[in-house]
UniProtKB/TrEMBL annotation:
It comes from the Bacteria. It is found in: Cell membrane. The keyword Lipid biosynthesis applies. The chain crosses the membrane at residues 17-36, 43-61, 81-103. Signal peptide: none annotated. It comes from Sphingomonas glacialis. The keyword Cytoplasm does not apply. Keywords: ATP-binding, Cell membrane, Kinase, Lipid biosynthesis, Lipid metabolism, Membrane, Nucleotide-binding, Phospholipid biosynthesis, Phospholipid metabolism, Transferase, Transmembrane, Transmembrane helix. This is Diacylglycerol kinase.
Length: 111
């Protein structure tokens, strides 16, 4: 399947994907360990998916930019920076969602 092949490339070739993979794994393990509710799992799934979607789009844009322009071009630089900014925004939002979901559960467990 072409879509699955895209995700395989992403996980294999993108150095940032390893960070996302590690972060996703930590969130899933924490969710399991803290027995979060079904409602909370919805938020964690959204957080994880948000980052992967942003990274996939960013990687596709980078590939396309490198294909159409091998020289230094300020416009290409701007396009890449914008796409990378999307990943940063998604990652910050995902971190906030994960902390807002997991920390109260952790404090509950510790109390
Ligand atoms: N052809 C270009 N012309 C101008 N600036 C460029 C060009 N290619 C890359 N850049 C600049 O270098 C930055 C890094 O680009 P690069 O393609 O190396 O992405 P990357 O390091 O793989 O990014 P990421 O960590 O998001 O995967 C871009 O955000 C952009 O500012």
């Amino acid at each position: 399947m072409y879509a699955a092949r895209g995700l395989r490339w992403l996980a294999r070739d993108e150095h940032n994907a390893w960070l996302h993979l590690a972060a996703s794994g930590i969130v899933i393990i924490a969710g399991l360990a803290l027995h979060v509710s079904r409602e909370d799992w919805r938020w964690l799934v959204v957080a994880i998916a948000l980052v992967w979607v942003a990274e996939a789009i960013n990687t596709a844009i980078e590939e396309l930019c490198d294909r159409i322009c091998t020289d230094f071009d300020p416009s290409i630089g701007r396009v890449k920076d914008l796409a990378a900014g999307g990943v940063l925004a998604a990652s910050l939002a995902a971190a906030a969602i994960s902390l807002l979901t997991l920390v109260p559960r952790l404090l509950q467990r510790l109390a």
